[in-house]
Amino acid sequence: MIILDENTRCIVQGATGKQGSFHTEQMLAYNTNIVAGTSPGKGGQKLGPVNIYNSVEEAKEENPDINASIIFIPAPFAKDAAFEAISQLDIVTIITEHIPVHDTMEIVEYAKKNDTIVIGPNTPGVITPGVGKLGIMPTHIFNKGNVGIVSRSGTLTYEVANQITNAGMGQSTCLGIGGDPVVGMDFADVLQRFEDDDGTDAMVMIGEIGGNAEENAAKFISKNISKPVVAYIAGVTAPPGKRMGHAGAIIEGESGTAKSKIAALEEAGVTVASAPSEIVKVIKDALK
């Protein structure tokens, strides 16, 4: 397992909103260690067993061992919430989508200065089966196992995890880096953690068109990763100049195409599946 373990103690920022309250209940139901929530002006209230505070600082005064946050704050206010969490915590997961790119750049820069891990924005989060989740993913498709998944796409993550589970295997940790052009953790950050993790024997990397994250990951894999990596790139048939789903998934010129990403990964020794349904077979062959 990586990032999320038995020592993770989390605060939910925006816990009393519609999304925040729903997913707090879901995370608690999965035994995630949610110890507090924030909602300015609603300090003193409770959400089930969770105490609500006006700020992260106020929550930390009563719960000094809080070390992680998950953010369900609307995009215009997400930067302030992220800065508040980054200044005091080790892990910050930003579920919010449509955060302006400039705001995200400032968030990522501030996180580097504070040595804080940022997952997202625009991410389904992170789940360690059997331990907990900081995110919005449906838990019934995950199973404890030895395959690490890192992905730019939420729904494809679920499809691949479900196929791995249905094949009688499971996941060590599954992490969505987010679909925006600028994100906190990138593929290389997560792959290195899987490489160093005794509980991960193989990795699945799910990419998509747009940007150069996958090409950068390929260079990193060729130099640093010894465990088997299986990749899948979504958007093979996407026409140039057309945005596909995520804000980050747009092809400009020759860079960012599925073809260029697949070529880079194959050159790095990664097996690239042509369909999500092939991934399980490739993993099984790699782990024989």
Automatic annotation (TrEMBL):
Catalytic activity of the protein: succinate + ATP + CoA = succinyl-CoA + ADP + phosphate; acetate + ATP + CoA = acetyl-CoA + ADP + phosphate; GTP + succinate + CoA = succinyl-CoA + GDP + phosphate
Enzyme superclass (EC): ligase
Keywords tagged on the record: Ligase, Nucleotide-binding, Tricarboxylic acid cycle
GO terms, molecular function: acetate-CoA ligase (ADP-forming) activity; nucleotide binding; succinate-CoA ligase (ADP-forming) activity; succinate-CoA ligase (GDP-forming) activity
Listed EC numbers: 6.2.1.5
Pathway terms, separated by semicolons: Carbohydrate metabolism; tricarboxylic acid cycle; succinate from succinyl-CoA (ligase route): step 1/1
PROSITE patterns xref list: SUCCINYL_COA_LIG_1, SUCCINYL_COA_LIG_2
Domain CoA-binding intervals: 3-99
Coiled-coil ranges per UniProt: none
Active site residues according to the UniProt entry: H246
The keyword Nucleotide-binding is assigned to this record: yes
Binding, substrate: Y158
Domain of life: Archaea
GO cellular component: succinate-CoA ligase complex (ADP-forming)
GO biological process: tricarboxylic acid cycle
InterPro entries (alphabetical): Cit_synth/succinyl-CoA_lig_AS, Citrt_syn/SCS-alpha_CS, CoA-bd, CoA_lig_alpha, NAD(P)-bd_dom_sf, SUCC_ACL_C, Succinyl-CoA_synth-like
Family in the record: Belongs to the succinate/malate CoA ligase alpha subunit family.
Subunit structure: Heterotetramer of two alpha and two beta subunits.
Protein name: Succinate--CoA ligase [ADP-forming] subunit alpha
Organism the protein comes from: Methanobacterium bryantii
Taxonomic path: Archaea, Methanobacteriati, Methanobacteriota, Methanomada group, Methanobacteria
